[in-house]
Amino acid sequence: MSDPRALLVALLLCAGTALAADPLTYGTKAQQLITKGDFVQALEELKAATSRFPYDEELRRQLAFTYTELAKRDLQAGRFAPAAENFRQAHELLPGSRELGLMRGIALYLNKDYAAARDELLQAGEGSEPLVYLGKISYDTGDLPGALDLWRRAKELDPANKVLAGLIEKAERELPVESRMDRGYSSMFDLSVDAELPPGLSAEVLDALESAYNAAGADLGLFPTTRIPVLLYTKKDYSSVTAGPDWSGGLYDGKIRLPVGGITKLTPQLRAIIFHEFTHVLVAELTRGNVPTWLNEGLAEIEGRKEYVPRVPELRGNHLIPVAKLSGGFTGMAGAEAGLAYQQSYLMTRFMVDRYGWYAVQQVLKYLGQGNSMESAVAKALSDYSLDLNAVVREWRESLPGAGTGDAAQ
User: Fold this and answer.
1) Is 65 strand, coil or helix?
2) Which among 168, 251, 269, 287 could disulfide-bond with 257, CB atoms 3.0 to 4.6 Å apart, if both were Cys?
3) Per-residue exposure over 43-55, b if at least 16 CB sit within 10 Å of its own CB, e if not
4) pLDDT tens, residue by residue, 344-353
5) Is 11 within a domain?
6) Are residues 158 and 255 in the same domain?
7) Which residues constitute the domain of residue 361?
8) What is the CA radius of gyration of the chain?
9) Which residues contact 348 (CB under 8 A, 6 or more apart)?
């Protein structure tokens, strides 16, 4: 007679094998992990399950959901390439979902992979949102008439969309000016120049842009791979297109825009502005736009002042603009206040670079790009120093002539 204990063990092993082979068991375990927010482990469970049960629709649906949740997290953290890949995986599991194709297209657009983004968005249907992003691709790559056509079609489908109305209004303001511009190119820049400007200026500007690409790129640790549009305007056209303040010497809004009317050759001042505005390109890409204005402008001033040092207002420790105010935009400031804002931003940022080094500043920008607040980004980047933003600002204030007491970070 066989050993009953051996028989019991064999039965238990068989039951365990049957249990492990049950799709419902995999699905239940994965759902528990999803409920806890552990999408990475849930993904591994579901990938193993679908490899064993490739035709189980519920497992495929759960796996697609998990890929989608991971993709959303990547998007929020500014990890656009991984987000696009996770949306692709989800879309392969649910090929009938136009929304997943649309989200992948958006992620590819944000990653500036314009060709792949366009292909994906064209398959996402004729809805308003695919048309908006197709228009953004056309706009970013210099096809302003094409962008307007796509946005107007989107507006017909979504007439109440105020953001879309703003895009159309902006493009309609730019088109009459840009349609008469001449074109120039270098290795990384697409230059559009008002036909009224001296023809020899284009080559000098392109040379300065390439120098800025190398110099600022080395400081910030980034060399963009996507071509960058640059537009040179007469001062009148610059004012009408940008609606910026009178004191504005340049603008970056996804394109570098420079008012250069009245000059016949590249001046040190214009070269400095080119370095300044190109730095904004790098900061925008590194931080995904999550950056306080004082740090953004401070870094741009550091690069620009390597080429030309302007006359600046004296700044003393007992006459400072609160850092909280400097974190917002400067465009609403009058000329004198704006001059102080730029100078204070420069001095604060210069202090950080000199005291902690470019690598630490690069780390601050990296953490901002991951969605951290400025306070958190500084604390993480300067953890070896055990410093937070308030402490950094306090040290900077103490280094100024006539330094007072208090906390400028408030």
Assistant:
1) helix
2) 251
3) bebbeebbeebee
4) 999 999 999 9
5) no
6) no
7) 288-410
8) 27
9) 294, 295, 298, 323, 393, 396
